[in-house]
Amino acid sequence: MADASPLTFKVASEKWEFEQIHELNYQTFVDEIPQHQENEQGRLVDKFHQENTYVICVSGNELLGMVALRSKRPFSLDEKLDDLDTYLPPFQSILECRLLAVRKQRRYTAVFAGLLKKIVYMALQEAHDIAVISGTTRQIRLYRHIGFQPFGPLVGKEGAQYQPMYLDLANAISLKQTSQLFNIKKGSRAEQLLFNYLPGPVSLAEGVLTANSAEPGSHRSASFVERFNCFRTMLSRKLHAGRVQIMTGSGTLGNDVVAAHLSLLPGKGLVLINGEFGERLRDQAVRAGLNFTVVEAESGKTFAEEELAVAIGNISELEWIWAVHCETSTGVLNNLDLLRRLCRRNNLKLCLDAISSVGSCPVDLSEVYLATATSGKGIGSLPGLVMVFCRDDVVFGDRNLPRYFDLGYYQSKQGIPFTISSNAVEALMTAVEKGDWSTRFENVRQWSEELRDELEEIGLTVLADRQCRAPHITTIALPTSVSSLDLGDQLADEGILVSYRSDYLVTKNYLQVCFMGKCRKPTRMMSYFLRQAVEGVGVGKSCVA
Asked: Which part of the chain is the Aminotransferase class V domain (predicted)?
């Protein structure tokens, strides 16, 4: 019995689901509504089947309802209405909803409303501005309740007429806050989209979970060692580095490895600080007993060439510079070409924390003495592996460092001196090998610029200056009238995950939007809630007493 199982709303993916879609399509649009010719099979495959995304309602193994979504023009409505766009408000991206059908015994129930609600969620998920549908005249009232607006004349033939309607997604977001149809218990994820704009954990690249869940293999097997070292070579070339060692651990471990190798050098160092992660480098340098001084830049700013040149000239026996490439806390991308040029000119060794930049934006590690990256950031794999890149002339420990820190020991053992998870490595390799970095970088650059323009139009301040801003991290300095904690919680309740709970963000009332891993275009819901917060419409309570 259909009633024995709960209703599930989902995107069709199983063979039996598609079979029942074709059957319900026939029952609705041949048997009941005479739009198509009868056939012996009792199945009707839509002419746009290969382009459709089907949202369905199932109970157990029974299909109760369906709707087809499609964004490729021309639409079915284009064929029924001349100059369709002239009936609609301005838009950038449009979605057509078709073949909305519910089994007779389940009409006027939660199935129909649930499918309409799912249309809204799917449209928001794909960042469409507007959705159009040919609505049955019998359910106009419910369509209106969702937010659909009728336009133009009725379409179709006698006995099968429909009212063209459109849904402005901005209005849908507002309705989502007030309509009982969208009322979901706080904390429930059953009907929520998850838009991940965190700096970690990030949305995973395709194939990562499959690779990670495979049967573990021996890290000593000849096949694994060969594939592992081919990957190390490929990754080094991809980033123009001399070589790379991969070890189990976090980015902090990788930076401790860098500090340990700097301790082998006789000269002094310079640590550059313009945010929280620069401060962490200072702390690690102190713990490693390094002899160094610091140059600091204002939060949201980068380093001036003249200031760095003066500092370099004032330090006798200076041998190295250690800096964060992408200062995650502020969204600043420090000028790697400038640092490389200064180090080349003054015969200095450049070390780089590239944890938040590798895989998120173009990175060229040529001439860099030591650099760190991790699996769980821009690359889009699971956390747990750290990569330490080094030049071919790096000074090794020669037993003066702990074994786990000694890059020379890794090199002498074909990169695998200790146990390493074959699954974690396979997941990392999958993320890198399947990732189209150039396309991702261009998408992120475009989305980032559009997001900044929207934020500034709303009246919000992006912390980093345009000329030094990391494309993949947008740090928003909220006004004192808006609490980052309250607004972040509000967004999380809506399935929009942003960074706001780190101490350094809470202290300064910052909120961050990050494009890392398998990221996607910002949802319009985020801009809507940010605008509501600025305008004081019940979102983000004041953080001022």
From this structure: 216-499
